[in-house]
Design goal:
The complex is a heterodimer of chains A (119) and B (131).
Chain A (H helix, E strand, L loop, with lengths): L2 E6 L6 E12 L12 E9 L12 E3 L24 H14 L19
Antiparallel strand pairs in A: 1-2, 2-3, 3-4
Chain B lengths: L1 E7 L4 E13 L7 E9 L12 E3 L16 H15 L7 H4 L33
Antiparallel strand pairs in B: 1-2, 2-3, 3-4
The chains are: A alpha+beta (119), B alpha+beta (131).
């Protein structure tokens, strides 16, 4: 089961959706610095929404409350490197990032450009 | 949803720990919508009673007896699984833990038709431990 978050636009009649789930899987990819067969538990955000250039928005994984939205270095809504205080604040910041996007290296995070969500 | 399956040899039973994300307003005083994990298990305590549901909002919401803060969701879930197993005595190899046959509906037996789908149903012939 996942939690679905609907996003309504003030300027468009279309609605976008983000799915938040909690998973237990073996991870193989950039989130695992050392490839292991251990099962990791993590939050996963997926969406079918696209950015304003019509590019599919990426899947995001959060392995801890210090998995900050901007390259694990900074929160998206604010220029802070503080760990999220709870799951709620983490989800809110990631949803903010999906909607608003971010500039390249925003707040010195080293993150790549991500355009806002297309409605 | 994350589903952890724990096979207990003495009982020939697969227990489960289920972790899933929810959002609702919790009775925590602020009236705000929360996002949290709900952790449940089919494991029974040694007295046969069920474990409560645990609602986790932060990495500091560890199981009873566990202090501090987990450094990841993996560490958090591992702590809960360890807590359930330890508190239920699943790690004990003596016959004491396996004798609690009346406590759980999750055990494997031919007659337990009312039990959940998590039973280790097809394994009776392959259970070498009883030899």
């Amino acid at each position: 089961m996942a939690v679905n978050i609907s996003i309504y636009s003030n300027t468009s009649p279309s609605t976008k959706s983000i799915a938040l789930s909690f998973e237990g899987e073996i991870l193989a990819g950039s989130n695992t610095s050392v490839l292991t067969t251990d099962i990791d538990y993590f939050f996963k955000i997926t969406t079918g929404a696209r950015d304003t250039d019509n590019v599919q928005l990426p899947v995001k994984l959060m392995l801890s409350l210090d998995s900050l939205a901007l390259n694990d270095n900074k929160q998206s809504a604010t220029n802070t490197a503080n760990t999220y205080v709870d799951i709620k604040s983490m989800v809110v910041d990631y949803v903010y990032d999906y909607i608003n996007g971010h500039t390249a290296d925003q707040y010195g995070s080293g993150v790549k450009l991500q355009l806002p969500m297309q409605f | 949803m994350a589903l952890i399956r724990i096979y207990h040899e003495e009982d020939n039973t697969i227990y489960t720990v289920t972790v899933d994300i929810y959002n609702s307003v919790l009775d925590d005083g602020d009236g705000e919508m929360d996002y949290y994990l709900k952790i449940t298990t089919s494991i029974k305590k040694t007295d046969g009673t069920s474990f409560p549901e645990f609602r986790v909002k932060t990495l500091s919401d560890l199981p009873p007896g566990y202090g501090g803060t987990a450094d990841s969701f993996t560490a958090l879930i591992d702590d809960y699984v360890a807590y359930f197993m330890e508190d239920a005595g699943l790690g004990q190899s003596s016959s004491s833990s396996s004798s609690s046959s009346s406590s759980s509906s999750e055990q494997y037996s031919e007659s337990s038709s009312s039990s959940s789908s998590e039973q280790y149903s097809e394994s009776s012939s392959s259970s070498s431990s009883s030899a």
